[in-house]
Amino acid sequence: MQTPVNPFKQAIRNQQTQIGLWVSMANPYSTEICSGAGFDWLLLDGEHAPNDLRSLMAQLHVVAGYPSTHAVARVPAGDTALIKQYLDLGVQTLLVPMVDTPEQARGLVQACRYPPDGIRGMAGSRASRWGRYPGYVHEANAQVCLLVQAETRLALQNLEAILATDGVDGVFIGPADLSASLGHVGNAGHIEVQTAIEDAIKRIVKAGKAAGILTTDAALAKHYMALGATFVAVGLDTQLLIRGTNALVGEFKNTVASSPVVPSSDKTYS
């Protein structure tokens, strides 16, 4: 059996735009519904959603049934042991939040790679189909895709150094946390935040790396893509459910449940 090639990594290296959906409901049933919609990638969230290793594995199973959709998993933090566990489950593409320095980035690259290129622990795991991919330990390093989140003022200050880190495949801008770091909590649409985002995307593209972001504003998503962003999440499963249920209730009742708070001049999240 051949070690699977990472199609998402290939696509962003070839500057092919990948449209994604944030998946936070931590349930294989709802994740399968999202898998069949035709998104290029689904973000299985371990940072702000109640996912554990078992719920993540169940969702990886269902996404695997839809070959045109790729599972990207976000770890809660850049912890070496946890990264090892995610990779052993078969995750090929990782998103790591709150990466502020090149030192952090280098440590993450090491955590994602087997020796001699890194420190990932060896095991006969689901990722290698328990040894049925005979070349896995020699081929896995090339197929793991590492995406890091730049979502603070410090990260933007260190962006070129982070981008220069060999093994970092892309940088994802987190608008909500970035707005907080820049002093505009809850207002990702503030001109300072949007200027910083646009500048960061241009710097990422100039460095030859893939730029990513999440926004539910279609016009803004297209604007970011025009700037060169190649992996763009355009919605969240929770928001789709909230809006759909609110709209349905609104057809039959005078009082509709309050919608979630959205940044005042934008609909961007992280």
Could you explain how this protein is built, in words?
This protein has 270 residues and is of the alpha/beta class. The chain has a single domain, classed as TIM Barrel (Alpha-Beta Barrel), CATH 3.20.20.60. Helices cover 42% and strands 15% of the residues. The protein is built from 12 helices and 8 strands. An 8-stranded parallel barrel has the order 1-2-3-4-5-6-7-8, surrounded by 8 helices. Helix 3 links the parallel strand 2 and strand 3. The longest helix has 16 residues. The termini are far apart. About 2% of the residues have low confidence.
Q: Short description, anyone?
A:
This protein has 270 residues and is α/β, with parallel strands linked by helices.
Number of helices: 12
| Assembly context of the chains | single chain
Radius of gyration: 18 Å
Q: Which residues form runs of ≥5 with pLDDT under 50?
A: 261-266
Average pLDDT number: 95
Structural domain count: 1
Please state the overall shape, judged from the principal axes of the Cα atoms: globular
Biggest sheet descriptor? 8 strands, parallel, barrel
Could you state the order of secondary-structure elements as H and E? HEHEHEHEHHEHHEHHEHEH
Strand order of the largest sheet: 1-2-3-4-5-6-7-8
Q: Do you know the CATH architecture?
A: Alpha-Beta Barrel
**According to CATH, what is the class?**
Alpha Beta
Q: Whole-Å distance between the termini? A: 37 Å
CATH topology: TIM Barrel
The CATH superfamily name is Phosphoenolpyruvate-binding domains
Strand content: 15-25%
What percentage of residues falls in helices of 4 or more residues?
A: 40-55%
Helix/strand/pairing class, anyone?
Answer: alpha/beta
Number of strands: 8
